[in-house]
Amino acid sequence: GGCTDQREVSLQTSVSEQTAKHPCYSQEAHTRYARMHLPVAPHCNISCNYCNRKFNCVNESRPGVTSEVLTPADARRKFAMVKEKVEQLSVVGIAGPGDALANWPETRESIERIKAAAPDIVFCLSTNGLMLPDFAQEIVDLGIHHVTVTVNCLDTEIGARIYKFVHYRGQKLTGVEAAATLLKNQLEGIGFLVKHGVLVKINIVMMKGINDRHIPEVVQKMKELGVFVTNIMPLIPAPGSVFEHMPQTSMKEVSDMRSACEQYLPQMRHCRQCRADAIGLLGQDRSHEFRLAPPAYEQ
Ligand code: SF4
Ligand code: SF4
Question: Its Gene Ontology biological processes (predicted)?
């Protein structure tokens, strides 16, 4: 009825107003608006072979750089500190150092506290997607319009080579079973978010000899699901990870893959793989100015 249409129109307007202020989703915004990542999510519920758990999640972060972990109360304090000094601050994101949804109570509480203090702030979060079917409705209810999910493949055999295990509902799954559970939840969760007006960005880690040839298929499937943009990223072998001796994917290879996939979906080319506690304009990191606690891990 008319009522629903009205709501949909205003939802769409608010999403596009928010996107115009989001440096990662809008080319124009990325030189004008600043973001801060709040490292309130230390745990993860899966194990990617490219991850070294001492470091930040590759969902949004360059492996090998480290950050402090904050409680929701500290996150709120830090937000106030940063907001005062960084005028262009428009976006607060939860991007690790583990998975935003594996720490959902802390992620949610941090967002609620900041939202109460600053209703204009745009929130985003990034996740491996395992818990999306459980929390996507709450994400929508919280008014989060920008979510990033890392989807590396659609094929469980390929997934079995990428994921060492998945912790799900009290069980530790491995092999194709782990991959199947993760993939199913990712697809279901992404579909739900898109249907509810959330702009979904997909990160894909390009791993030579593992998923590289399969990436165009992944991008086509994401298009079908209504995803907004894909962000193909290079594998940067992290010391101590299972893939530590894998070849690094060059930016040329990534850039060629983006060009090949552009026919399906817009390709993000300005993602900087920021740290889980990054602060400032994209390409700028002022996190060292705003530390509350010593970093959890030192390189
Ligand atoms: Fe590491 Fe993967 Fe978990 Fe991110 S999702 S913290 S890369 S295991
Ligand atoms: Fe934006 Fe990429 Fe940095 Fe996230 S990691 S804040 S998407 S530039």
Answer: molybdopterin cofactor biosynthetic process
